[in-house]
Amino acid sequence: MIELDKNEKINCEYLIIGSGAGGSVASKYLTDCGKDVLLIEEGGHSETIKLDTFSKSFLNSWRNSGVTPVISKSNFAFGEGMCLGGGTSVNGGLVWRTPEIILKEWNKTLNTNKFSSNNLSKYFIEIEKNLGLNLSQSLNTPENKESLKLLEMGEKKLLKVVKIPNSINSSEEKNKLTLGQLSNSKNSILQKYIISSKKKGLRVFTKCVAKKLITKDNEINSVEVITNNEKKIIYAKNVILACGATQTPMLLKNSFGNNYLKSKIQNHLNLRIGVKFTENMQSHNGTLFTRQLQEYLDDGILIMPTSFNKSNFFSSLVKMSNDELSLIEREINNFSSFIIQLQSFNKINLNNYFNQTILSYNIHELDIIKLRKYFSIFCSMLFEFGAELIFLPFKKNFKINKKDNLVYFFEKNLVPKNLEMVSVHGMSSAKMGIKKENDKVFNLQGCSFDFKNLFCLDSSILPSSTIESPQGTIMAVASQILEENFN
């Protein structure tokens, strides 16, 4: 991608900061309208052909090499993409429509109807068309036995199990997507939105970090950036923030002071379990898994299989002895992996100390109660459907078998200090509102209350977390905001 010339003065009509779901949509929409658009991205352009291992992918495509630590009683890590395409380049390619329960909550809270399914439907249809969403995956392969297990549970227990909408274009590659590695096996936003827009005049500067918004006459006049270790100024008539859940509020705080925004990040907690079945599962050879258990969605709980390889799987089992690890390796064909995802009640605190991001979080007791309930339910079903041993995301007492009293076990061991959690979905850290408040600095049209030429289109503006993976929601809401402001 283009690098900034040392002596060049940069002007543009629209400056987009960040190239994830929201920034990509803005790039395409505005370029298609014939606007003068400049997109800047803090990360580089990570080509999949050069990142053929997980370690290379994490080092080059994720912030802090894949893991941003969170100060917490639990072991808790937060993951964010940092490359051209943002999180959309390293995620699993899942593009869900916003659950109805979330849309109703948003409309009620904000006293509006703009977030109804009918109003957002046209945007989702266009997004799904652009990304070639696939709902026709076959389960008739030996590598997708976890999905078959989930489907069997749903049929026999009368539980809601649905197909996963994804932008996968090929089953030739083994699935690397849910492990966080770049892959050519999906129709990525990078290709469909950014690269295609470059042919229409979009300018893209990578490894360009926005440091401060500079104001003049109650507008954003320019943006101070760092590129090639040098400070530059970009002048723009309109500025669109699409930096993500941590970086958008950090940029606002660095520009206008810590008191400008009281920022907390709503998130989904991912807790991963490993399961040894009595039958051969071949999960480590799998492609993308295809089903999700949605029976408990209204309670903020989703359950789904996830792919893994040996290295990834063993990294979560370092607490085991060498003899135990050797036994697992010999029997790896019988192992599978599942995720229990929870819409967290508490939020991640985003603190700015000397322009450094410090995250902190404490899981709420209501979340603990909910996790105990659904771990008991799901593990019980797993044992009923062929599991003989389950490894849990616990620091201690992490193995259970069908002889264990699950209710008692989880009551005793599922406690904050024993949990190992990950989150890759951050939202609502600079959310929209009806009026300006300490945690709301953008209106329902995505425009700043203070600066008429400053907009936000990323996950931070969402009124709340989405239960499901938020990419589709971010793209649809961004499309709606663009049409309202720049049609």
Any chance you could write out the topology, listing elements then pairs?
Elements: E1 10-17, H1 21-32, E2 37-41, H2 54-61, E3 68-71, E4 75-78, H3 87-90, H4 100-110, H5 117-131, H6 145-157, E5 161-163, H7 189-198, E6 203-206, E7 208-216, E8 219-227, E9 230-241, H8 247-256, E10 264-277, E11 291-293, E12 301-305, H9 310-315, H10 322-330, E13 335-343, E14 348-353, E15 356-360, H11 365-384, E16 387-391, E17 399-400, H12 406-413, E18 420-423, E19 426-427, E20 431-432, E21 440-442, E22 454-456, H13 471-486
Parallel strand pairs: 1-2, 1-9, 2-6, 3-15, 4-18, 9-22, 20-21
Antiparallel strand pairs: 3-4, 5-11, 7-8, 8-9, 10-13, 10-14, 10-16, 10-19, 12-13, 14-15, 16-17
Can you characterise this structure?
The chain is an alpha/beta fold. The protein has two domains: 10-45 and 83-132 and 185-260 and 429-486, 3-Layer(bba) Sandwich (FAD/NAD(P)-binding domain), CATH 3.50.50; 142-166 and 265-423. 29% of the residues lie in helices and 25% in strands. The protein contains 13 helices and 22 strands. The strands form four sheets. Strands 3, 4, 10, 12, 13, 14, 15, 16, 17, 18 and 19 form an eleven-stranded mixed β-sheet that branches. Strands 1, 2, 6, 7, 8, 9 and 22 form a seven-stranded mixed β-sheet that branches. α1 links the parallel β1 and β2 (37-41). α1 packs parallel to α7 and α1 packs parallel to α13. The longest helix has 20 residues, at 365-384.
Strand content: 15-25%
CATH superfamily annotation of the largest domain:
FAD/NAD(P)-binding domain
Distance between the termini: 29 Å
In one word, what is the shape?
A: globular
Query: Low-confidence runs (pLDDT<50, min 5 residues)?
Result: 48-55, 171-175
CATH-defined topology of the largest domain: FAD/NAD(P)-binding domain
The first-level CATH class of the largest domain is given as Alpha Beta
